Amino acid sequence: MPSLPSLGLRHRRNGRVRPAPRVPSPVADYVVDCAVYVDGHRLEGPWTHTEAVEEVRARGTGFVWIGLHEPSEEQINGLAETFGLHELAVEDAVHAHQRPKLERYDTTLFMVLKTVRYVANETLSANSEIVESGELMAFVGRDFVITVRHGKHAGLAQVRSQLEEDPEQLALGPSAVLHGIADHVVDTYLEVTEAIQVDIDEMEAEVFAPRTKIDAEHIYLMKREVMELRRAVMPLAKPLQRLAEGYTPTVPEEVRSYFRNVDDHLATVSERVASFDELLTTLVDATLAKITLQQNTDMRKISAWVAIISTPTMIAGIYGMNFDVMPETQWQFGYPVALLVMMACCVGLFKIFRKNKWL
């Protein structure tokens, strides 16, 4: 039977109740996958991070790829000690909320990428989320790659399987994995921008369609989501350019050309995002102008009906005054004539306003 401390229970010592010491979480609880690759092929068998790095360094070839999902600082410390990760980079990887960047610590690269996912909504509200974002960090060394994910949608299982199906590419080393990750992230940017393009086209058609009511809040919501996408895309350009230009010997020449291709795709995404921002600004202006025009039209209609109603009200008000000497008050046909005059005035004003398109 396990002891009380191992169960996380309290125990007595010298008559005082003290909490049991914390037991560190096993590595398997937060490691998504740990694999050893030699000549582009994955070695069989489950590996711990210490066994994996020992195997690679004993062989003198290959590398380790470890995937983590939202580890705590305590959980990642063991990996940091084994692979010699810089404490500042480890802190960024644990706490997240970083902008895309590329940093070098001795022979280790640390790269941060923002991941995005398009969220379809049947109806939009002020709290709707169209672009869901996450973060992806990568530590790249001579014989290892450690990826840290934050968010539920930033899985790398597809990237790993695609690279494993291409041993020639995977044999290029850890930098090839970094390229695969960057390429996957930028491809999701392209998919998200295509989905947003459809939404903006529908908004544009609705704004410029005649006699349609537009809710400006939906356009502001889309503009807010595009700004979030912009914060993920724009800062990534400089890190990709540095990798393509030979910022570090960790990325060999044969891999740099692949990063140039990713940078080209990112430029396409950046152009789309910039055009979205400009188009949404135009749609906001057009919507406000349309709303103003609609309000002016409504005011003209209200004014026309007020003018029509005020005429019989004026006549009835005059003849409703309690004076003895009033013209036509004793006339036999005074009442029906007054009604006919009221009706004629109302019909005449209605025709005039209808002719001038006020009604």
UniProtKB/TrEMBL annotation:
It comes from the Bacteria. It is found in: Cell membrane. The keyword Transport applies. Residues 1-21 are annotated as: Disordered. SUPFAM superfamilies: CorA soluble domain-like, Magnesium transport protein CorA, transmembrane region. It is a multi-pass membrane protein. InterPro entries: CorA_cytoplasmic_dom (IPR045861), CorA_TM1_TM2 (IPR045863), MgTranspt_CorA/ZnTranspt_ZntB (IPR002523). This is Magnesium/cobalt transporter CorA. It comes from Saccharopolyspora taberi. The lineage of its organism: Bacteria, Bacillati, Actinomycetota, Actinomycetes, Pseudonocardiales.
